[in-house]
Amino acid sequence: MKGNSLRKDPFFHTFNKEITTIPLPINFTFPFCYEPHILAKMASESVQKHITTQRQWLHNFGLNSHGEGQSIGKMFGVLVVEDQEKNIGFLAAFSGKLAGKNDHEYFVPPIFDMLTENSFFLVEEENLNKLNKQIIALEQNPLLTKLDTAFKETKMALNLRLAQFKEDLKIQKHNRKQVREESKRALSQEEYDVIEKDLIKQSLRDKHDLHIFQKQNQEEIAKAEVPLLDYLNGIASLKEERKRRSSALQHKLFEQYNFRNAKGETENVIPIFKAFNNLQPPAGSGECAAPKLLQYAYLNKYKPLALAEFWWGQSPSAEVRRHQHYYPACRNKCEPILGFMLQGLAIDENPMLQSPDDTIEIPIIYEDESLLVINKPEEFLSVPGIHIQDSVYTRMLNKYPDAGPLIVHRLDMSTSGILVLAKNKEVHKALQSQFINHRVVKYYIALLDGIIKEEFGEISLPLHVDLDDRPRQLVCYDYGKKAITKWEKLSVEDGKTRIKYFPVTGRTHQLRVHSAHPNGMNCPIVGDDLYGQKSNRLHLHAAYIEFNHPVSNERISFTVNPKF
Questions:
Q1: Where does the pLDDT of residue 355 fall: very low under 50, low under 70, confident under 90, or very high at 90 and above?
Q2: pTM
Q3: Residue 377 pLDDT more than 90?
Q4: DSSP 460-501
Q5: Range list of H helices, 54-188
Q6: ∠ CA(306), CA(309), CA(315), 5° rounding?
Q7: Active-site residues: which are they?
Q8: Which of 44, 62, 190, 266 has its CA 20 to 30 A from that of 479?
Q9: Residue 220 burial by CB count (10 A; 0-12/13-18/19+): exposed, middle or buried?
Q10: What pLDDT shows up at residue 125?
Q11: Distance between CA 168 and CA 223 in Å, rounded?
Q12: Helix (H/G/I), strand (E/B), else coil: 417
């Protein structure tokens, strides 16, 4: 391959180090789970140097106290490419907007720049902003409060009047009852019949008057509500117009996002998503770094060789993003688009679809007629997945076909350690009840990628799945489920801290997020490819469990030390 050369393309960047001895990747990067190629890492370092030395734009990444405006980190991407003359270089991009703009020197342009002067997007966005201002002005107008108060007062007065009317009728009814009783005692039957006939007429008249009064009351309430409803309908009409125009704008915007692939084919984002999941594209689809990079490469006849994306700056409050760490492409927005754009390229295998080695054994550490306790290996499923069937459950089912073992609880695929299985439904129900009622004691051993000064503590950060990037979890105080972890420090080893975790709750990725999040330990678990940096394995192990035996009710416990 050729190394550095002069180029006219301002977005094709050459490496500032000798690269002729570095082997090119055989296949292109699988973007959702990868270890960056050395050329991609070198390209990333060049981009990071550019970010810190350029003076053309100012963006507050939250790395120091000198930036202006709200601090926000940003995902950047690099694409190592080969041109038609076999020159090797790289392209750079950022996700979304940077310093309020879509277009900057050094970085490839967006698929469609909605922020160009007088673009249909900006024009309609201004119209939508005007509608928003109208709606806010109407909702905050003192007249609305005045109309609402006037209606409530009128309604209350009318209902009080109705209540008084009913009370008067009640008194009249009581009086008729007394007349009946006195007449029955004092009058003859013939005289009483005359009185009773008249009392019945009075009762029927009262019922008729009540019906008329209630109808008039409802009409007066409805009439009193008209000014308020007219006002609220005006707001509702503006909101409906805003919704309609916003939807139309989004659709028109999506019509501009036409993607290329390695076969030379072109497809719009709307049918791409329809073919993938039969849904509309989420807002921002096509604005991530990876689609921008591949689009520019295809349009300029560059051959994509390797991809990497890294985070630069402060982590969002809800997510776990660490400065300069590499991350896979997002699932919700990018998976359908990249699925199309990568067609025609030879791509690395998806490691998440690779079945475990058949020779991997599952050690059984305890067994009786009721249950099994096993030591699950790392990177091994507890139960069958969508694409991979090999799991603890399937292995134990093959080993004990008559018992039909049932998984009582689960461990993440990447986590090793103790797992309990029941040999029948009654035992399964009894054991699950202990988990649900917090009668099971367990702890995990984790190795964190840094030094923790405190000796013990408790973390409470509610968790919610990241709908844009499953299976990642977010810290979400509005919709998240309560997640509590107690911990104590065991030791510090070569700049890393060994921790004992006592999970009070059992949320997905709870210990991983509580370790990595800035409001948790602020120190990811070694080898955590989702919330930290990939390594040979996730250094998290379920080391201890204690519960009542489901048959004897004897308290039993098991310990398996981690291999790391």
A1: confident
A2: 0.82
A3: yes
A4: E--EEE-TTSTT-EEE-TTTPBP-EEEEEEEEEETTEEEEEE
A5: 120-140, 142-186
A6: 170
A7: 412
A8: 62
A9: middle
A10: 94
A11: 25
A12: strand
